[in-house]
Amino acid sequence: MPRRRRAGMYAILPAAIFLCVAPVGGHAETADVADVAADDVLNLRTEPRANAPLAGALPPTASGVEVLRRSEGWAYVRFGRQTGWAAARFLRPSITFSGGRPPSPLQCIGTEPFWSFSIDGSQSTFRTLETEPVAAEIGKIEPSRNSTIVWLVRPDSGPVRSAVIEARQACSDNMSDRVFPFRISIETQDGQLLSGCCDIRP
User: Fold this and answer.
1) N or C: which end of the chain has fewer CB within 10 A?
2) Is 19 helix (H, G, I), strand (E, B) or coil?
């Protein structure tokens, strides 16, 4: 994906472009930028084609991007004062949170040492390269008192004492260019602190 370049001032898009694109429902949908590397941006174009002039750029962690209309793999979006066409494959529906719980199923990973932690409904599963998966019922999930996107998870048993999950983060696993939208910190029963990244499992 092209790196960010300084965008100039461009003329208003020809009316014909808008005539061939249907609006999305009666109001704009919202989306989050996805699958863009932490050191890259999602370019906005003046027209729905890859070689059109740049109109701006979205950061890899942008959320709540308004999708005003779509056309053949492209989305005309608004984010703050920026508008332009973005490749739709780098946008996914905005994650919403309700009921004081993190989304599920959620898959989390950490490296060096390698481990994984998942939440699926009322059950959590933890494993490392050296151990078999250990499933446990989630005893309690406590939402933060001053944030709707932070949760404390306490399994009833198993090697994980507690886990703090934070949404809308630019989390890197230090092994790939992927940017994860959740960050996790795990305290194990033997006193280890493990840090990693999470994403919603398809």
Assistant:
1) C
2) helix
Across 145-182, b (16+ Cβ under 10 Å) vs e yields: eeeebbbebbbeebbbeebbbbbbbebbeeeeebbbbb
Q: What span, in angstroms and rounded, lies between the C-alpha atoms of 31 and 64? A: 5
How many Cβ atoms are within 10 Å of 48's Cβ, its own excluded? 23
Can you list the alpha helix ranges (DSSP code H) found in the chain? 15-19
Rounded CA separation 132/115 (Å): 11
H or E, element range at 15: helix 15-19
Going from N- to C-terminal start, the domains of the chain cover: 15-93, 106-200
Q: What is the pLDDT of residues 74-104, one digit of tens each?
A: 999 999 999 999 999 999 888 777 778 888 8
Q: Tokens for 12, please give them.
A: 């208003």
CA-angle at 161, arms to 159 and 163, nearest 5°: 110
Cα separation, 171 vs 61, in Å, equals: 9
Query: Which tens digit of pLDDT belongs to each residue from 129-159?
Result: 999 999 999 988 999 999 888 999 999 999 9
